[in-house]
Design brief:
The protein has helices at residues 4-30, 35-42, 46-53, 61-70, 75-80, 92-106. It is mostly helical. Helix 2 (35-42) packs across helix 3.
Length: 107
């Protein structure tokens, strides 16, 4: 039987993976990806990507590695929720805000 501390650690672990799954879905939407594109790049069957999007399965190490290889600038944000723009680590929201600021300054 798991002790209270072990349960807390396990709950944090699962929560972390849930947040990573949400962040993968944010990247998916922001970049206009399709399950087919993800399959072509990663070798992970598109049905698995669909299941991830529909939250019928949990994110795993292979999913994380595939997204990080496709978008290395999102690696820090993907796993921690933080950004480091000074070292090229951003998030979709950060990139969108910068793009919008740039278009306002151009006019």
């Amino acid at each position: 039987m798991l002790g209270i501390n072990q349960l807390a650690i396990y709950a944090n672990f699962l929560y972390g993976f849930g947040m990573i799954q949400e962040r993968i879905l944010i990247i998916w939407e922001y970049k206009g990806l399709t399950a087919k594109k993800l399959e072509e790049f990663s070798g992970i069957d598109r049905e698995k990507w669909y299941a991830l999007k529909q939250k019928k399965r949990r994110v795993n190490e292979d999913d994380i590695n595939a997204i990080v290889k496709m978008f290395p600038n999102y690696a820090l944000w993907l796993v921690s929720g933080t950004i480091g723009p000074e070292c090229g680590q951003t998030s979709p929201d950060y990139d969108k805000a910068n793009r919008e600021l740039g278009s306002q300054n151009a006019g």
